[in-house]
TrEMBL record:
It is an enzyme of class 6 (ligase). GO terms for biological process: 'de novo' CTP biosynthetic process; pyrimidine nucleobase biosynthetic process. InterPro entries: Class_I_gatase-like, CTP_synthase, GATASE, GATase1_CTP_Synthase. It comes from Actinidia rufa. GO terms for molecular function: ATP binding; CTP synthase activity; identical protein binding. Belongs to the CTP synthase family. This is CTP synthase (glutamine hydrolyzing). Residues 2-160 form the Glutamine amidotransferase domain.
């Protein structure tokens, strides 16, 4: 997955990373562009010195049961000037379904954004990264939620229309 994300980023191949796919794109970007060779998700290396993806449960941090961020949650677009906001018909927010425990580390956002990765969708607290884009790329998009859950035959969820 890491190599696929790298290849797509460097060769301007369309990339839609869903959930772990978004997390992988952040790890790959941190390693290749920021030069943080040890960047990782806490899920894969709990001791990583550069945790760009961390355990961010909605419930308890110590119990696996009921810690998943699950079901429909709101994502607010941070700017109308991005690919995904346009795909979602210039809505101010979208409600998509979630199923995960790990998320992009909010403490690393400014570093990632200074290097060109932009977080164009966040939850209402501003702490949970929901959508990323790479403006220097024709279509490099990551979504923490699962747009496929609301996709239907003949009525695909918006992000798929961008590929
Ligand atoms: N559905 C997914 O891709 C979730 C996996 C992911 N590593 C998590 O945050 O739990």
């Amino acid at each position: 997955m890491m190599l696929a994300a790298k290849y797509a980023r460097e060769n301007k191949v369309p990339y839609l990373g869903i959930c772990l796919g978004m997390q992988i794109s952040v790890i790959e970007f941190a390693r290749s562009v920021l030069g943080l060779e040890t960047a990782n998700s806490e899920e894969f290396d709990a001791e990583t010195p550069n945790p760009v993806v961390i355990f961010m449960p909605e419930g308890s941090r110590t119990h696996m049961g009921s810690t998943m961020r699950l079901g429909s949650r709101r994502t607010l677009f941070q700017t109308p000037d991005c690919i995904t906001a346009k795909l979602y018909h210039n809505s101010e927010y979208v409600e998509e379904r979630h199923r995960h425990r790990y998320e992009v580390n909010p403490d690393m956002i400014s570093m990632l954004e200074e290097a060109g990765l932009t977080f164009v969708g966040k939850d209402e607290s501003g702490k949970r990264m929901e959508i990323l884009e790479l403006p220097s790329h024709p279509f490099y998009v990551g979504v923490q939620f699962h747009p496929e859950f609301k996709s239907r035959p003949g009525r695909p969820s918006a992000p798929f229309l961008g590929i």
